[in-house]
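Sorry, any thoughts here?
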Amino acid sequence: MENVMKVDTIGQYNALNNNETLHPLVNIVDLSKADKRPNRRSNYGFYAVFLKEIKCGDLHYGCNYYDYEEGTLVFVGPGQVIGVENNGELYQPKGQALVFHADLLRGTSLGRHITDYNFFSYEVHEALHLSESERKIIFDCYDKIRNELERGIDKHSKTLIVSNIELLLNYCVRFYDRQFITRENVNKGILQKFEELLNDYFTSGKPKDLGLPSVTYCADQLNLSANYFGDLIKKETGKSAQEYIQLKTMDVAKEKIFDTSKSVSEIAYELGFKYPQHFTRSFKQHTGFTPNDYRMLN
């Protein structure tokens, strides 16, 4: 496997793609200016929002290959590895990329809330697919940032540029909400698989070996990133994925409590709790009764 190319700064990324550096911490990069290059895997030290204008299969992320469709946005956070292994072929990059360093956000509202934008840790196959009207809004945001960069840096530059980046990201939150809705049938299928996954988990010996099911475990089993999975479950059920797992655990616990041949401690270990007292505390928080008191009710 070839080495991953590390690109730490905006200036390095600009040079890589034959774009001028107008600001050391942010740019709208025209990828069509780049020379043809071999496929490779890269690790960026900054945030990137890629807008692809044509279909081109030039990204590999995690264990998944992804062919961009026209008008697709993909979000990459610092430290993530993206690209494909070198197969000896050259390709011409296309589209635009908003790239900005975390240092640009220091002391700003966006800097304090950047981690709230979960899509920077989604997988590539969980990309945002834009409608034509949404695409125009994204282009407008890109143009505003580009125009501000071309004016030159002054005391207002940072505020205006960061405000427009935040505006773009907030639009993307709205567009992802729309995508969750328009893909409702697909999402319901995932919700059903999630329920089946939890049923299978609790009827197997996994809780004793692995403990309580985690959001990360469930997301991995469904081939989704933890953040995308969590956002999807929240949109579909109104509950976080962790809350959903907790409710399912307590539902299973209520059934097991009726088996008086088993002690509360045995049931706790069967469910994946490390300590019976943690089970007792969780059960009482959920039902208002201790496990033994709940048994007495029936």
Q: What stands out?
A: The CA atoms of residues 217 and 271 lie 15 Å apart. The chain has twelve helices and twelve strands.
